[in-house]
TrEMBL record:
Protein's UniProt keywords contain Ligase: no
Organism of derivation: Trichonephila clavata (Joro spider)
SMART domains documented for this protein: SH3
Protein name (Swiss-Prot/TrEMBL): Unconventional myosin-XVB
Gene encoding the protein: MYO15B
One Pfam family of this chain: MYO15
Coiled-coil region: none
Record key words, sorted: SH3 domain
InterPro entries, alphabetized: MYO15, PH-like_dom_sf, SH3-like_dom_sf, SH3_domain, Unconventional_Myosin_ATPase
Length: 247
């Protein structure tokens, strides 16, 4: 976070009367925590996955590529006597991206719908392409009822859904769940459910989706959504943000 972002959060947290000694208090309402998290979401880099890159001769000032639910950002690290922060040089929305390719192992090319393009260099080129493509699919399609896992996602976190490559997941949308973009809530055939990142899945075709629906009807009679999932995610993010501001 830069100085202005820290100042904005500091004012908000101070206004709620929160200090380092009351940070973990049960008296802090969920609405307060959600407000702090929502403000942090407005900051361009806070929820981004950052990749070290080089822009070559055409983009000599670019040092990092930030990818998040809100777009792709070209970033440079700035330092002065008081603050060490990340400055956004340019932002590209997923709707403006026509194609992402990796012509060589450490080269990534982004073709824009207006005919423009950029070439970036990173040893994480494949990972960057996969992540950007997932977000582009989400932006274009607006979500799918059924998705297929394109890679294993294994976690011990109780609120997250673990699965294996090629598993079919039913995406559940519910207004009681407050999810960040880039995250979905889904259910496996065996009844296990939880939140998972959309970069690990791809949309299914109509025929595959129908097969998924038949399997679900055979193995499921009802689904109970855990409303505490939202509170758990907000609490973890709240603690991460306030710990940086107050300590």
């Amino acid at each position: 976070m830069n100085r202005e972002e820290k100042r904005k959060l500091q004012q908000l947290i101070d206004g709620y009367g929160v200090t380092s000694s009351t940070l973990h208090s049960n008296n802090i309402k969920l609405t307060m925590k959600r407000n702090v998290v929502d403000v942090a979401k407005e900051f361009p880099n806070y929820f981004s996955r950052l990749f070290p890159i080089s822009g070559g001769r055409n983009l000599p000032n670019v040092q990092l590529l930030g990818v998040s639910h809100s777009g792709v950002r070209l970033v440079r690290r700035e330092r002065d006597a008081i603050c060490d922060y990340l400055r956004v040089l340019d932002t590209i929305s997923f709707e403006d991206i026509a194609e992402v390719s990796v012509p060589r192992s450490s080269t990534i090319q982004i073709l824009l719908r207006n005919g423009g393009w950029m070439t970036l260099y990173s040893h994480k080129a494949e990972k960057i392409r996969n992540m950007v493509e997932r977000y582009c699919v989400e932006a274009a399609q607006g979500g799918h009822e059924y998705v297929r896992a394109v890679a294993d996602y294994v976690t011990r976190e109780s609120t997250l859904l673990s699965f294996r490559e090629n598993d079919i997941i039913r995406v559940v949308k519910n207004r009681n769940l407050h999810l960040d973009k880039g995250w979905l809530y889904g259910v496996l055939d065996n009844g296990e459910s939880g939140i998972f990142p959309c970069e690990y899945v791809a949309p299914l075709g109509k025929q595959e989706a129908k097969r998924g629906q038949r399997r679900e009807l055979e193995s499921w009679s009802s689904l109970s959504l855990n409303r505490n999932l939202e509170e758990d995610r907000i609490l973890k993010t709240w603690l991460h943000i306030t710990a940086r501001i107050l300590t």
